[in-house]
Amino acid sequence: MATTAGAFLAGGIAACGAVTATHPFETVKIRMQLQGELQDKGHQPHHYKGPVHGVSVIVRNEGVRGIYRGLGCAYIYQVLLNGCRLGFYEPMRSRLTGLVFNDGGATQSLGVNMFCGAASGCMGAAMGSPFFLAKTRLQSYSPFLPVGTQHQYKNAWDGLRQIFRAEGVRGLYRGVGAAMIRTGFGSSVQLPTYFFAKRRLVKHLGAEEGPMLHLASSTASGFVVCVVMHPPDTIMSRLYNQDGNLYKGVFDCLAKTIRTEGLFAIYKGFLPHLARILPHTIITLSLAEQTNKWIRGLENRVLPPTWLPQAETESLK
């Protein structure tokens, strides 16, 4: 394992590679979550009908630039979120397991793993919330087929500046509670599911360490994450995109959405989310394995042995 700083960097690099490939589906997902917001079922527009249709509609009307709105913010957010989630998860898990079981962190406890996954994810979500806020508003904007509240920002920094000028720091952290719930749900199952699937594939199918094992484990993890995370993700998108006049908070948004649009409204945009989260999880976790090895090798060459994790130090002897 790399140092905590190294793991943070490796996780951030891996996530940026993933978001480059999956950002178009994220744009479609957000617009589908916002279309028909607080409108009765019979009066809701259906500009975007699914992942492929949504991408084609946006590209046709707004070009490739339209489908990649908010990409800069997405990079910063992913570095902060996945840097924390992938960088702090293992150190937290090892230390907490050592405290609970007094075994130096060797035991694999599902409860401890889920807690550490959720905690590390919540840390990243809180750190990156202002950037996700700006990203959501940039992605929801369309001069051709608008959905939800429209915000005309020139770019990410202009958006952050306008939000801060109008609402202060509180405005920049609008919806952070929903973001932490959403990411906590996803993170509590992402890494535990990934490592659970990985161990089972090795134990029962004799799978060997390598890209195919990482791919299969990431696929299982990505599907579970999407199912668990989508309802709070929908609530978060709506809280982020509003000006503060529609919802008072997470539970108010949830209640109004279900009461006006029906229970399944919280699963609007599920297919684009699945189309994004599966390749995103696969690429992130698969790349994280490789970037961790690269960072670990770099650290072994440039850092003094006393700075390396104990396992690394032992392997160098």
TrEMBL record:
Indicate where this protein resides in the cell.
Answer: Mitochondrion inner membrane
Q: Which residues form the signal peptide?
A: 1-21
Is-annotated flag, keyword Repeat? yes
- Where, in residue numbers, are the Solcar repeats? 2-95, 108-200, 209-294
Tagged with keyword Protease? no
Cite the entry's keywords alphabetically: Membrane, Mitochondrion, Mitochondrion inner membrane, Repeat, Signal, Transmembrane, Transmembrane helix, Transport
Q: Show the SUPFAM superfamilies listed in the entry.
A: Mitochondrial carrier
Task: Give the Gene3D superfamilies listed for this entry.
Answer: Mitochondrial carrier domain
Please give the GO cellular component terms listed in this UniProt entry: mitochondrial inner membrane
One Gene Ontology term of the biological-process aspect is:
transmembrane transport
Protein topology in the membrane? Multi-pass membrane protein
The UniProt similarity line reads: Belongs to the mitochondrial carrier (TC 2.A.29) family.
Q: What is this protein called?
A: Mitochondrial carrier domain-containing protein
The species is Podospora appendiculata
